[in-house]
Design brief:
By secondary structure, the chain is of the alpha/beta class. It has 9 helices and 13 strands. The strands form 4 sheets. A 5-stranded mixed β-sheet has the order 1-7-6-4-5, sandwiched between helices. The protein has a 4-stranded mixed β-sheet with strand order 8-13-12-11, with helices on both faces. Strands 2-3 form a two-stranded antiparallel sheet. A hairpin with a 1-residue loop joins β12 and β13. α3 packs across α4 and α6 packs parallel to α7. The radius of gyration is 18 Å and the shape is globular. The model has no long low-confidence stretch (mean pLDDT 97). Bound molecules: oxa(dethia)-CoA. Oxa(dethia)-CoA binds next to α2 and α6.
């Protein structure tokens, strides 16, 4: 495996102040706590209120990561934000984070669009930049204000999505690293219109996305392990995109004896798209589940359709 890897120096997460419970949703659409819990595992999801947005969440998560990394913000050589819900079409969220944090001006700052796979795509981009530019540290963020594009009359989607952000400071290091990426142009399963559209709301064929997810998550895991002559025995922790607890359980079952390695936090956050893996990453570090020298497997999927898997030494 490639030893020109990346080190996750520190992570941070940010959530809005308020959350919506399943009972709250049952007052808006015809649903109930029992249905949502058994079909998705979700109990609450956060929702931005006045003054909170993709930019403010990204900034707060980044601030926490920088504090934990114990580095000077002047050492940060670039900011990348993965999001499907930027505050504005332009400027980018990354530029607003650069300004809010008072980062240097002679750095790159840009957003990427890969839906829920965004944070994993960022890892690959960051790796390339860390070995090809003078940047010592890069700040990568997944931030979403999905409540802006959720249709709260559609019980098939509004129960799933939540707002939040996760951030990581990365640097180049002689650590094991490998990653696979996929993209398949397909609008039918998961779609939201863009700039200039009258109304921007997510539309989703939930059952089809579910079927797609369980196939590609397993593919992502199996192919990255096979490529590196490894099995699940060689992995300490698996972070799947937190889309639906049932999806993760389905995948988990394919690796008997390794169920405990699959982390889940869906009950509290729902699906926060590009923020889901970095939020989970911050939690596994905080809980001491993930420690130095361990091997982490991240696997995610999202609209596009996009998917990716990454093996990282911590
Ligand atoms: O980041 C990636 C994005 N998306 C995903 O990962 C989504 C993946 N898909 C899913 O998580 C699941 O497909 C859902 C949770 C969205 C839906 O679960 P499902 O088991 O696939 O349900 P379904 O769509 O097949 O619907 C079953 C029934 C239907 O009623 P009928 O036709 O059988 O009478 C729905 O109308 O459940 C009904 N239903 C609901 N009932 C109560 C759908 N949503 C709800 C609801 N509350 N919120």
């Amino acid at each position: 495996m490639d030893k020109n890897g990346i080190r996750i120096v520190a992570t941070g997460r940010a959530l809005p102040k308020n959350f919506i419970s399943n009972d709250d949703l049952s007052k808006i659409v015809e649903t109930n706590d029992e249905w949502i819990t058994t079909r998705t595992g979700i109990k609450t999801r956060y929702k931005c209120e006045e003054g909170e947005s993709c930019v403010t969440l990204a900034t707060e998560a980044a601030k926490k990561a920088i504090e934990k990394a114990d580095i000077s913000k002047d050492e940060i050589g670039g900011v990348i934000v993965a999001t499907s819900t930027p505050d504005d079409a332009l400027p980018s969220v990354a530029c607003m984070v650069q300004r809010a944090l008072g980062l240097r001006e002679n750095i790159l700052a840009f957003d990427i669009s890969a839906a829920c796979t965004g944070f994993l795509y960022e890892l690959g981009i960051a790796k390339g930049l860390l070995y090809s530019t003078a940047a010592k540290y890069l700040l990568v963020i997944g931030s979403e204000q999905l409540s802006r594009i959720v249709d709260y009359t559609d019980r098939g989607t509004c129960i799933l999505f939540g707002d939040g952000a996760g951030a990581a400071i990365l640097c180049a290091d002689e650590k094991e690293y490998d990653q696979l990426f996929w993209a398949r142009g397909q609008r039918e399963l998961l779609y939201c219109s863009g700039v200039g559209a009258k109304e921007q709301k997510i539309s989703m064929k939930g059952t089809d996305v579910f079927k797609f997810a369980v196939v590609v998550l397993k593919q992502g895991i199996d192919e990255i392990l096979a490529k590196n002559n490894m099995t699940m025995d060689d992995v300490d922790c698996v972070l799947c995109h937190q889309a639906n607890e049932r999806i993760i359980r389905h995948v988990q079952k394919k690796y008997p004896g390794h169920e405990d390695k699959f982390y889940m936090n869906l009950a509290r956050y729902g699906n926060t798209s590009a923020a889901s893996i970095p939020i989970a990453l911050d939690e596994v570090f905080e809980a001491g589940i993930l420690k130095e020298k361990m091997r982490l497997l991240c696997v995610g999927f999202g609209a596009g359709m996009t998917w990716s898997s990454a093996l990282l030494e911590i």
